[in-house]
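Data card: per-record layout.
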Amino acid sequence: MNTITANGITYNLPASIADVQQLITQARQTNVEIRVRGAYHSVPPAISTDAGNAAGQPCINIMLSNLNAVSIDANAGTVTAQAGCHLGYDPFDPTEISTWENSLFYQLNQAGFAVPDMGGIIHQTVGGFLSTGSAGGSTDYSFNEQLISITFIPANTDNPEPVTVSINDADTDNFYAAGVSLGLLGIIVSATFKLVPRYCIQGNETITTIADCAIDMTGNGVAGKSSMRDFLLNTEYTRILWYPQPSVTKATVWQAKQIPYTDQNIVPYEELPAVNLFGVTTTIPVQIAADLVYTAIGKWPTWFGNIVGTNTDLYKGGVNFVNNNFYTPNGILSAILDLFVKPGVQNFLDYWYRSLPMDNNMSDKLFPVEFTELWIPFDATSPTDTVAQVLQTLNNLFNTIYADQSGPIPAGAFCTELYAAKPSKFWMSPANGANNVFRVDVFWFGNNNGSPADSFYPLFWNALQPYNFRCHWGKYLPAANSTQGTSYLQQQYPMWNKFMQLRQQYDPMQVFVNDYWRSQLGIPMP
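The structure for this 526-residue chain is written out next.
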């Protein structure tokens, strides 16, 4: 079996179901962990194994890049994709197997089909996207809602047989448990989805001040403006980037709808302006510039002290000047964001697979963004508007953070993303339940000094706890022993205990459980 090393980890590259069975058997017999990496888009501890067992035998890490076959049944309008198939092209695939032509979405489009929704990027593998319950920004459509069946290989015996669970089973418990399983029930090897005819999307992105935004960003109810709840419910696809800093107060509102598929008058959405570099049209130079600017902010004032010395008048004067002028009207941050967040309207009409994942051309390497993603259930018809209450809470929090036009410079220099998702029947989906969810993504630039989990994210976790948020499993989670840790999580998922019972049934030796998930989910040692 071939292997490859990436990020200092050696990955096995199984080429068949038998290879996966062999690796699981090896993990059981040597009592080591076995985990699967997809596109490495989740936080690293959620993906990989720990160091090894007490005898010094290394754990087993896998990439399913060779298991990427796609089979489309045009008559039934379904597709079966192996778990290692990428949704789109992954430019950072260390195996270099991923191409646009062997991606799921390319093959669907060529056959005249599509899926109705996806996330903001499409680098992920089929197995990885399913495992964490990822979703796009829509209360009308859902990727997971298209799932018909899923096949995984458990670790309940040596040479374990694949298990296929389906929405058509007489008892659908195992299906709704396996659909979002964090890699804890078994190794997903394939999934079958129902499809829709391919389509285009048409929409616009509008950048305005908060005062001029068509959506009420205060949550207080502003005459002449749509409430956020109504906007999320009445718009097919949405995404809002909110810059709440007192010197900025801008909003970028992205919205779109499906239209019939066409090759005419195509105008792709551009998140950043593209330039010609070596004969190739690309946004990379602009991303490099943005990265340099945000890195300078994120590592302030460390880099300045390294250059001029921390015990100098220049350093002390520079730090004092920046601190006093960063958030002021027409100050440093306002000038910087005016370069990248310019008021105006961009109209677009494009193929479903290209502009619906609106962040897909942003490089994780050139412009690394980390975030915690809070999913908050809201009732579409209740007199109590939970979405408005959340906005009010966030505004109060931002007012506190930026009191006296101050605040944490690296953390506060970025934005917050707002969008929604449909309810989900999958037990461990953050959208599980009968209600839509309002999603609050708190961004952190990856090159900032320190960790957002130390003091920045807890501000939001604490403030939004009364709304019973659930976090996206692949992003930053509150510490297991915190107020929003394991005990809190157990209360948020009605099928928690049944999921844990199935986890024990399919993996009694806990070969799929690393220390991170053992801690976060409160799984006792075997």
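Known properties of this structure: The mean pLDDT is 94. The longest helix spans residues 386-401.

See the next section for split statistics.
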